[in-house]
Write a structure and sequence with these properties.
By secondary structure, the protein is of the alpha/beta class. The protein is built from eight helices and seven strands, in the order ααβαβαββαβαβααβ. Helix content is about 35%, strand content about 20%. The structure holds S-adenosylmethionine.
């Protein structure tokens, strides 16, 4: 599978400042998620005990949300996947500054690690403000294509959560359609506030702030992994 994958986003942005480059070189190796090791036990290298639960954030951008949820839940482990090296450097800095022991970083395409984890490994996953790829001819580039959604359905334990967010009208529609159509997930919304309000435990990400500055309305779609 790995050879056929193509990543269409940016891997590099502005050149990193020397301090950030050095931090990446010295700190990332110890923080890097290792797909050849059991995901739970690799957190024991830095955490006092085994993490009670594991979460995955796909495309964490600058890592603001991942660092905040990891700081709020030190007993849980958080894996972040992001191929954009400037974003990875930003998360490494958040981890250093926050003294976070419960974060592992996969600095590449998430699709390369999904198969490495056993069924029901995750308590939840986040896909926040993914690249919208609004044109139909680019639909295959959208992050929730069936392979990823099937992978998440396998990895998230029954009753676990899948949190999706977007400010882009086309992306909102394909996120919702894809997850609603998947037999493994149930949309938990009961009233408009459930998709209009940011869940209390999440923090504004860079893309969410940009959307609000530009008067685009973010929505949050909370799904539950179906039992059975
Ligand atoms: C629009 S940005 C949003 C970033 C962040 N979630 C936020 O809200 O600020 C989408 C991110 O998804 C990442 N991404 C796209 N495809 C990915 C993949 N296959 N695996 C992991 N990350 C991916 C991109 O590199 C990009 O940083």
């Amino acid at each position: 599978m790995a050879e056929k994958l193509q990543f269409y986003g940016r891997r590099k942005g502005r050149p990193l400042r020397r301090t950030m480059r050095e931090m990446l070189e010295t700190r990332l190796p110890a923080l890097r998620f290792d797909p050849d090791r059991d995901p739970i036990s690799q957190f024991a290298d830095t955490m006092a005990g085994r993490p009670e639960e594991l979460f995955l954030e796909i495309g964490f951008g600058g890592g603001e949300n991942l660092a905040a949820i990891a700081a709020a839940r030190p007993e849980a482990g958080f894996i972040g996947a992001e191929p954009f090296i400037n974003g990875v450097a930003s998360l490494v800095r958040h981890v250093e500054q926050g003294g976070l022991a419960n974060v592992r970083i996969w600095d590449d395409d998430v699709r390369l690690i999904l198969d490495s984890m056993a069924d029901a490994t995750l308590a939840g996953a986040y896909v926040l403000f993914p690249d919208p790829w609004p044109k139909r001819r680019h639909a295959a580039r959208r992050i929730l294509h069936p392979m990823v959604l099937d992978g998440l359905a396998r990895l998230i334990r029954p009753g676990g959560s899948l949190v999706l967010a977007s400010d882009h009208p086309v992306a909102k529609s394909w996120l919702l359609q894809a997850a609603c159509a998947h037999p493994g997930f149930i949309w938990t919304a009961r009233r408009p506030g459930d998709w209009r309000n940011r869940p209390d435990d999440l923090v504004p990400t860079r893309y969410m702030k940009k959307a609000e500055r530009e008067d685009r309305v973010p929505n949050w779609f909370l799904f539950q992994r179906r039992h059975g």
